Protein backbone atom coordinates (compact mmCIF):
# COMPACT_ATOMS: atom_id res chain seq x y z
CA UNK A 1 0.00 0.00 0.00
CA UNK A 2 1.20 3.56 -0.65
CA UNK A 3 2.30 5.58 2.41
CA UNK A 4 -0.04 8.44 1.55
CA UNK A 5 -3.41 8.68 -0.16
CA UNK A 6 -3.40 10.19 -3.65
CA UNK A 7 -4.30 13.92 -3.40
CA UNK A 8 -7.87 14.75 -4.41
CA UNK A 9 -6.68 17.05 -7.19
CA UNK A 10 -5.05 14.03 -8.85
CA UNK A 11 -8.03 11.73 -8.20
CA UNK A 12 -10.70 13.99 -9.67
CA UNK A 13 -11.15 13.89 -13.43
CA UNK A 14 -9.07 16.84 -14.60
CA UNK A 15 -11.74 17.96 -17.06
CA UNK A 16 -14.24 18.25 -14.20
CA UNK A 17 -11.75 20.30 -12.19
CA UNK A 18 -11.17 22.64 -15.15
CA UNK A 19 -14.92 23.22 -15.50
CA UNK A 20 -15.21 24.03 -11.79
CA UNK A 21 -12.42 26.60 -12.10
CA UNK A 22 -14.40 28.31 -14.84
CA UNK A 23 -17.74 28.10 -13.03
CA UNK A 24 -16.31 29.85 -9.96
CA UNK A 25 -14.43 32.44 -12.08
CA UNK A 26 -11.10 31.59 -10.49
CA UNK A 27 -9.12 32.72 -13.52
CA UNK A 28 -7.04 30.92 -16.10
CA UNK A 29 -7.14 27.14 -15.84
CA UNK A 30 -3.39 26.83 -16.35
CA UNK A 31 -2.51 29.53 -13.81
CA UNK A 32 -4.81 28.08 -11.12
CA UNK A 33 -3.62 24.50 -11.56
CA UNK A 34 0.05 25.47 -11.84
CA UNK A 35 -0.07 27.00 -8.34
CA UNK A 36 -1.66 23.93 -6.74
CA UNK A 37 0.36 22.05 -4.14
CA UNK A 38 -0.02 18.74 -5.98
CA UNK A 39 -0.28 20.13 -9.48
CA UNK A 40 -0.90 17.97 -12.55
CA UNK A 41 1.71 18.00 -15.29
CA UNK A 42 1.46 20.70 -17.95
CA UNK A 43 0.78 17.98 -20.53
CA UNK A 44 -2.16 16.68 -18.50
CA UNK A 45 -3.56 20.22 -18.20
CA UNK A 46 -3.18 20.84 -21.95
CA UNK A 47 -4.87 17.52 -22.75
CA UNK A 48 -7.79 18.30 -20.43
CA UNK A 49 -8.32 21.75 -21.96
CA UNK A 50 -8.10 20.32 -25.48
CA UNK A 51 -10.64 17.64 -24.56
CA UNK A 52 -13.07 20.26 -23.20
CA UNK A 53 -12.70 22.37 -26.33
CA UNK A 54 -13.33 19.37 -28.58
CA UNK A 55 -16.43 18.55 -26.53
CA UNK A 56 -17.48 22.20 -26.98
CA UNK A 57 -17.56 22.76 -23.22
CA UNK A 58 -15.00 25.57 -23.54
CA UNK A 59 -14.67 28.20 -26.25
CA UNK A 60 -11.69 27.87 -28.56
CA UNK A 61 -10.34 31.38 -28.02
CA UNK A 62 -7.49 32.15 -25.66
CA UNK A 63 -9.79 33.11 -22.75
CA UNK A 64 -11.27 29.59 -22.79
CA UNK A 65 -14.68 30.71 -21.58
CA UNK A 66 -17.31 28.26 -20.39
CA UNK A 67 -19.95 27.51 -23.02
CA UNK A 68 -23.63 26.94 -22.15
CA UNK A 69 -22.98 23.21 -22.68
CA UNK A 70 -20.04 23.36 -20.28
CA UNK A 71 -22.18 25.03 -17.62
CA UNK A 72 -24.56 22.05 -17.74
CA UNK A 73 -21.80 19.43 -17.75
CA UNK A 74 -20.58 20.82 -14.42
CA UNK A 75 -23.86 19.66 -12.89
CA UNK A 76 -23.48 16.10 -14.20
CA UNK A 77 -20.90 14.25 -12.05
CA UNK A 78 -19.79 11.95 -14.85
CA UNK A 79 -17.18 11.91 -17.58
CA UNK A 80 -17.80 14.87 -19.91
CA UNK A 81 -18.52 12.62 -22.89
CA UNK A 82 -21.08 10.62 -20.95
CA UNK A 83 -22.61 13.84 -19.64
CA UNK A 84 -22.93 15.23 -23.15
CA UNK A 85 -24.45 11.94 -24.28
CA UNK A 86 -27.09 12.19 -21.54
CA UNK A 87 -28.04 15.74 -22.58
CA UNK A 88 -28.39 14.69 -26.22
CA UNK A 89 -30.50 11.72 -25.16
CA UNK A 90 -32.99 14.17 -23.66
CA UNK A 91 -32.83 16.56 -26.62
CA UNK A 92 -33.18 13.82 -29.25
CA UNK A 93 -36.02 12.15 -27.32
CA UNK A 94 -34.28 8.77 -26.95
CA UNK A 95 -33.61 9.08 -23.25
CA UNK A 96 -34.22 5.59 -21.86
CA UNK A 97 -31.53 3.78 -23.90
CA UNK A 98 -29.08 6.67 -23.48
CA UNK A 99 -29.50 6.84 -19.70
CA UNK A 100 -29.07 3.07 -19.52
CA UNK A 101 -25.94 3.02 -21.68
CA UNK A 102 -24.51 6.01 -19.77
CA UNK A 103 -25.01 4.09 -16.51
CA UNK A 104 -23.29 1.03 -17.97
CA UNK A 105 -20.31 3.04 -19.19
CA UNK A 106 -20.05 4.77 -15.81
CA UNK A 107 -20.28 1.48 -13.90
CA UNK A 108 -19.99 -1.97 -15.47
CA UNK A 109 -21.25 -4.10 -18.31
CA UNK A 110 -24.36 -6.20 -17.58
CA UNK A 111 -22.63 -9.24 -19.10
CA UNK A 112 -20.55 -11.79 -17.23
CA UNK A 113 -17.81 -13.96 -18.74
CA UNK A 114 -16.82 -16.59 -16.16
CA UNK A 115 -13.46 -18.31 -16.46
CA UNK A 116 -13.84 -21.58 -18.33
CA UNK A 117 -17.20 -20.56 -19.80
CA UNK A 118 -16.05 -17.84 -22.17
CA UNK A 119 -17.48 -19.53 -25.27
CA UNK A 120 -20.90 -20.07 -23.69
CA UNK A 121 -20.92 -16.45 -22.49
CA UNK A 122 -20.06 -15.17 -25.98
CA UNK A 123 -22.84 -17.25 -27.53
CA UNK A 124 -25.31 -15.89 -24.96
CA UNK A 125 -24.25 -12.32 -25.67
CA UNK A 126 -24.61 -12.86 -29.41
CA UNK A 127 -28.34 -13.39 -28.89
CA UNK A 128 -28.64 -9.71 -28.01
CA UNK A 129 -26.50 -8.30 -30.83
CA UNK A 130 -28.12 -5.42 -32.66
CA UNK A 131 -27.24 -2.36 -34.71
CA UNK A 132 -23.51 -3.12 -35.18
CA UNK A 133 -22.97 -1.70 -31.71
CA UNK A 134 -21.56 -2.92 -28.41
CA UNK A 135 -23.56 -0.19 -26.65
CA UNK A 136 -26.89 -1.12 -28.21
CA UNK A 137 -26.19 -4.81 -27.57
CA UNK A 138 -25.75 -4.06 -23.86
CA UNK A 139 -29.00 -2.10 -23.88
CA UNK A 140 -30.79 -4.95 -25.67
CA UNK A 141 -29.72 -7.31 -22.88
CA UNK A 142 -30.83 -4.84 -20.23
CA UNK A 143 -34.19 -4.39 -21.94
CA UNK A 144 -34.73 -8.16 -22.01
CA UNK A 145 -33.91 -8.35 -18.29
CA UNK A 146 -36.28 -5.50 -17.43
CA UNK A 147 -39.12 -6.92 -19.53
CA UNK A 148 -38.72 -10.34 -17.92
CA UNK A 149 -38.66 -8.73 -14.48
CA UNK A 150 -41.94 -6.93 -15.27
CA UNK A 151 -43.50 -10.26 -16.29
CA UNK A 152 -42.54 -12.36 -13.27
CA UNK A 153 -42.20 -9.89 -10.41
CA UNK A 154 -44.62 -10.54 -7.57
CA UNK A 155 -45.39 -14.08 -8.72
CA UNK A 156 -44.42 -17.12 -6.61
CA UNK A 157 -40.69 -17.79 -6.92
CA UNK A 158 -40.01 -14.68 -9.02
CA UNK A 159 -36.60 -14.05 -7.46
CA UNK A 160 -35.54 -17.59 -8.39
CA UNK A 161 -36.82 -17.05 -11.93
CA UNK A 162 -34.78 -13.85 -12.21
CA UNK A 163 -31.68 -15.68 -10.98
CA UNK A 164 -32.20 -18.41 -13.58
CA UNK A 165 -32.78 -15.85 -16.35
CA UNK A 166 -29.53 -14.06 -15.53
CA UNK A 167 -27.58 -17.31 -15.24
CA UNK A 168 -28.89 -18.59 -18.59
CA UNK A 169 -28.04 -15.32 -20.35
CA UNK A 170 -24.74 -14.67 -18.52
CA UNK A 171 -26.02 -11.44 -17.00
CA UNK A 172 -25.18 -9.98 -13.60
CA UNK A 173 -28.29 -9.25 -11.53
CA UNK A 174 -26.20 -7.12 -9.16
CA UNK A 175 -24.78 -5.02 -11.99
CA UNK A 176 -28.19 -4.57 -13.59
CA UNK A 177 -29.73 -3.36 -10.33
CA UNK A 178 -26.89 -0.85 -9.87
CA UNK A 179 -27.31 0.28 -13.50
CA UNK A 180 -31.00 0.89 -12.80
CA UNK A 181 -30.16 2.91 -9.69
CA UNK A 182 -27.59 5.05 -11.54
CA UNK A 183 -30.07 5.57 -14.34
CA UNK A 184 -32.57 6.89 -11.79
CA UNK A 185 -29.95 9.28 -10.41
CA UNK A 186 -29.08 10.56 -13.89
CA UNK A 187 -32.75 11.21 -14.61
CA UNK A 188 -33.07 13.14 -11.34
CA UNK A 189 -30.11 15.31 -12.37
CA UNK A 190 -31.72 16.08 -15.74
CA UNK A 191 -34.92 17.09 -13.97
CA UNK A 192 -32.98 19.32 -11.58
CA UNK A 193 -31.21 21.23 -14.38
CA UNK A 194 -34.39 21.58 -16.41
CA UNK A 195 -33.69 19.24 -19.33
CA UNK A 196 -36.55 16.92 -18.40
CA UNK A 197 -39.97 18.11 -17.30
CA UNK A 198 -42.31 15.86 -15.35
CA UNK A 199 -45.48 16.35 -13.37
CA UNK A 200 -44.73 13.39 -11.11
CA UNK A 201 -43.52 14.21 -7.62
CA UNK A 202 -41.32 11.13 -7.52
CA UNK A 203 -40.79 9.04 -10.63
CA UNK A 204 -37.73 7.33 -9.21
CA UNK A 205 -39.40 4.67 -7.04
CA UNK A 206 -42.89 4.40 -8.44
CA UNK A 207 -42.38 0.71 -9.10
CA UNK A 208 -40.96 -1.64 -6.50
CA UNK A 209 -41.63 -4.88 -4.70
CA UNK A 210 -42.32 -4.87 -0.98
CA UNK A 211 -40.30 -8.05 -0.40
CA UNK A 212 -37.19 -6.89 -2.15
CA UNK A 213 -36.90 -3.42 -3.63
CA UNK A 214 -35.76 -3.47 -7.24
CA UNK A 215 -36.37 0.11 -8.19
CA UNK A 216 -37.25 0.69 -11.83
CA UNK A 217 -36.63 4.05 -13.42
CA UNK A 218 -39.52 5.23 -15.58
CA UNK A 219 -38.51 7.85 -18.14
CA UNK A 220 -41.39 10.21 -19.10
CA UNK A 221 -42.83 9.01 -22.41
CA UNK A 222 -42.37 12.42 -24.07
CA UNK A 223 -38.61 11.84 -23.96
CA UNK A 224 -38.80 8.37 -25.51
CA UNK A 225 -40.32 9.14 -28.90
CA UNK A 226 -37.21 7.87 -30.71
CA UNK A 227 -35.98 5.34 -28.14
CA UNK A 228 -36.87 2.53 -30.55
CA UNK A 229 -35.21 4.25 -33.52
CA UNK A 230 -31.65 2.89 -33.45
CA UNK A 231 -30.12 5.50 -35.81
CA UNK A 232 -31.31 8.33 -33.55
CA UNK A 233 -30.00 6.56 -30.44
CA UNK A 234 -26.69 6.02 -32.23
CA UNK A 235 -26.60 9.72 -33.18
CA UNK A 236 -27.00 10.71 -29.51
CA UNK A 237 -24.21 8.28 -28.60
CA UNK A 238 -21.99 9.76 -31.30
CA UNK A 239 -22.72 13.33 -30.20
CA UNK A 240 -21.48 12.45 -26.74
CA UNK A 241 -18.48 10.33 -27.69
CA UNK A 242 -17.09 12.62 -30.41
CA UNK A 243 -14.17 13.04 -31.15
CA UNK A 244 -13.57 9.43 -30.07
CA UNK A 245 -13.82 8.31 -33.68
CA UNK A 246 -11.87 5.72 -35.68
CA UNK A 247 -11.91 5.14 -39.42
CA UNK A 248 -11.40 1.76 -41.07
CA UNK A 249 -9.76 1.96 -44.49
CA UNK A 250 -10.90 -1.14 -46.35
CA UNK A 251 -8.20 -0.91 -49.02
CA UNK A 252 -5.33 -1.11 -46.51
CA UNK A 253 -7.13 -2.94 -43.72
CA UNK A 254 -5.91 -0.29 -41.26
CA UNK A 255 -8.06 1.37 -38.60
CA UNK A 256 -6.94 4.67 -37.10
CA UNK A 257 -8.20 7.61 -35.11
CA UNK A 258 -6.91 11.14 -35.68
CA UNK A 259 -3.63 10.38 -33.92
CA UNK A 260 -2.61 6.77 -34.39
CA UNK A 261 -3.42 3.29 -35.63
CA UNK A 262 -5.95 1.46 -33.48
CA UNK A 263 -7.36 -2.04 -33.22
CA UNK A 264 -10.65 -3.36 -31.92
CA UNK A 265 -10.46 -5.35 -28.70
CA UNK A 266 -11.38 -9.03 -29.21
CA UNK A 267 -14.21 -8.62 -26.69
CA UNK A 268 -16.02 -6.22 -29.03
CA UNK A 269 -18.82 -7.79 -31.05
CA UNK A 270 -17.44 -5.84 -34.04
CA UNK A 271 -14.00 -7.49 -33.80
CA UNK A 272 -14.62 -10.20 -36.41
CA UNK A 273 -16.84 -8.00 -38.58
CA UNK A 274 -14.85 -4.84 -39.20
CA UNK A 275 -14.49 -5.67 -42.91
CA UNK A 276 -18.25 -6.20 -43.26
CA UNK A 277 -19.63 -3.20 -41.36
CA UNK A 278 -21.99 -0.93 -43.30
CA UNK A 279 -19.92 2.12 -42.27
CA UNK A 280 -16.17 2.61 -42.12
CA UNK A 281 -16.55 4.93 -39.12
CA UNK A 282 -16.72 3.80 -35.49
CA UNK A 283 -17.35 5.77 -32.31
CA UNK A 284 -15.77 4.30 -29.19
CA UNK A 285 -15.64 4.89 -25.45
CA UNK A 286 -12.34 3.52 -24.17
CA UNK A 287 -8.85 3.75 -25.66
CA UNK A 288 -6.17 1.49 -24.19
CA UNK A 289 -2.56 2.29 -25.04
CA UNK A 290 -0.33 -0.64 -25.97
CA UNK A 291 2.32 -1.44 -23.35
CA UNK A 292 4.55 -3.70 -25.40
CA UNK A 293 7.29 -2.63 -27.78
CA UNK A 294 5.41 -3.72 -30.91
CA UNK A 295 2.29 -1.91 -29.67
CA UNK A 296 3.89 1.46 -28.93
CA UNK A 297 2.19 3.26 -31.81
CA UNK A 298 -1.03 1.31 -31.60
CA UNK A 299 -3.97 1.49 -29.23
CA UNK A 300 -6.91 -0.81 -28.49
CA UNK A 301 -10.49 0.44 -28.53
CA UNK A 302 -13.31 -1.18 -26.56
CA UNK A 303 -17.06 -0.75 -26.70
CA UNK A 304 -17.63 0.70 -30.16
CA UNK A 305 -20.55 1.46 -32.43
CA UNK A 306 -20.82 1.80 -36.19
CA UNK A 307 -21.61 5.39 -37.21
CA UNK A 308 -23.14 6.65 -40.43
CA UNK A 309 -21.41 9.72 -41.95
CA UNK A 310 -24.73 11.62 -41.97
CA UNK A 311 -24.75 11.64 -38.16
CA UNK A 312 -21.21 13.01 -38.12
CA UNK A 313 -22.03 15.71 -40.67
CA UNK A 314 -24.89 16.90 -38.46
CA UNK A 315 -23.02 16.78 -35.16
CA UNK A 316 -19.33 17.64 -35.63
CA UNK A 317 -17.83 21.09 -35.11
CA UNK A 318 -16.41 22.04 -38.49
CA UNK A 319 -17.59 21.15 -41.98
CA UNK A 320 -16.14 22.03 -45.37
CA UNK A 321 -18.08 21.34 -48.54
CA UNK A 322 -16.00 20.93 -51.70
CA UNK A 323 -18.59 21.22 -54.43
CA UNK A 324 -16.32 20.52 -57.39
CA UNK A 325 -14.72 17.49 -55.76
CA UNK A 326 -18.13 16.35 -54.43
CA UNK A 327 -16.66 15.87 -50.98
CA UNK A 328 -17.41 16.84 -47.39
CA UNK A 329 -14.54 17.17 -44.90
CA UNK A 330 -15.20 17.16 -41.15
CA UNK A 331 -12.84 18.82 -38.67
CA UNK A 332 -10.04 18.78 -41.28
CA UNK A 333 -9.82 15.02 -41.01
CA UNK A 334 -12.68 12.79 -42.17
CA UNK A 335 -13.73 13.09 -45.81
CA UNK A 336 -16.77 11.60 -47.53
CA UNK A 337 -18.04 11.57 -51.09
CA UNK A 338 -21.21 13.62 -51.36
CA UNK A 339 -23.18 15.20 -54.20
CA UNK A 340 -23.39 18.99 -53.99
CA UNK A 341 -27.18 19.02 -53.67
CA UNK A 342 -27.08 16.50 -50.83
CA UNK A 343 -24.38 18.54 -49.10
CA UNK A 344 -26.52 21.69 -49.26
CA UNK A 345 -29.49 19.86 -47.72
CA UNK A 346 -27.33 18.42 -44.94
CA UNK A 347 -25.85 21.85 -44.24
CA UNK A 348 -29.34 23.34 -43.91
CA UNK A 349 -30.40 20.73 -41.35
CA UNK A 350 -27.07 21.06 -39.56
CA UNK A 351 -27.55 24.83 -39.22
CA UNK A 352 -31.12 24.43 -37.98
CA UNK A 353 -30.06 21.76 -35.50
CA UNK A 354 -27.22 23.94 -34.20
CA UNK A 355 -29.58 26.90 -33.80
CA UNK A 356 -32.01 24.83 -31.79
CA UNK A 357 -29.24 23.25 -29.69
CA UNK A 358 -27.83 26.70 -28.89
CA UNK A 359 -31.26 27.83 -27.66
CA UNK A 360 -31.70 24.67 -25.60
CA UNK A 361 -28.27 24.92 -23.98
CA UNK A 362 -28.83 28.56 -23.02
CA UNK A 363 -32.27 27.83 -21.60
CA UNK A 364 -33.19 24.16 -20.96
CA UNK A 365 -36.78 25.24 -20.30
CA UNK A 366 -37.17 26.07 -24.01
CA UNK A 367 -39.51 23.42 -25.34
CA UNK A 368 -39.86 21.95 -28.80
CA UNK A 369 -41.77 24.23 -31.15
CA UNK A 370 -43.74 22.68 -34.00
CA UNK A 371 -40.97 23.81 -36.36
CA UNK A 372 -38.19 22.29 -34.26
CA UNK A 373 -40.19 19.07 -33.96
CA UNK A 374 -40.43 18.96 -37.76
CA UNK A 375 -36.65 19.44 -37.99
CA UNK A 376 -36.06 16.60 -35.51
CA UNK A 377 -38.51 14.35 -37.37
CA UNK A 378 -36.75 15.09 -40.68
CA UNK A 379 -33.34 14.34 -39.17
CA UNK A 380 -34.67 11.07 -37.72
CA UNK A 381 -36.03 10.15 -41.16
CA UNK A 382 -32.65 10.90 -42.80
CA UNK A 383 -30.80 8.80 -40.25
CA UNK A 384 -33.22 5.90 -40.68
CA UNK A 385 -32.77 6.02 -44.45
CA UNK A 386 -29.08 5.29 -43.92
CA UNK A 387 -30.04 1.64 -43.22
CA UNK A 388 -28.38 1.05 -39.88
Automatic annotation (TrEMBL):
SUPFAM superfamilies: P-loop containing nucleoside triphosphate hydrolases. Keywords: ATP-binding, Helicase, Hydrolase, Nucleotide-binding. It comes from the Eukaryota. The keyword Hydrolase applies. The keyword ATP-binding applies. GO terms for molecular function: ATP binding; helicase activity; hydrolase activity; RNA binding. Residues 47-139 form the Helicase-associated domain. InterPro entries: DEAD-box_helicase_OB_fold, Helicase-assoc_dom, P-loop_NTPase, RNA_hel_CTD. This is HA2-domain-containing protein.
Amino acid sequence: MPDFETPEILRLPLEELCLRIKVYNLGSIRSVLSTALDKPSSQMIDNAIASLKEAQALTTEEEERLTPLGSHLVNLPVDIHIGKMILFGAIFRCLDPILTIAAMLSYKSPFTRPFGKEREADIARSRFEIGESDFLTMYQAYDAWRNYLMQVRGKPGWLRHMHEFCKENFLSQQNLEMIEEMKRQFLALLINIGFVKTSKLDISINRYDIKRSIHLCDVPSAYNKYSGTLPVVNAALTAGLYPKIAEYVRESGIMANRMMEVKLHPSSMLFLREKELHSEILAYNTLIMGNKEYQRNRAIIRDATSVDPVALVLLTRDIKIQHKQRKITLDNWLSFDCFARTAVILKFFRNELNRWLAEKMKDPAVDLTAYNQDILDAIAYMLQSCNY
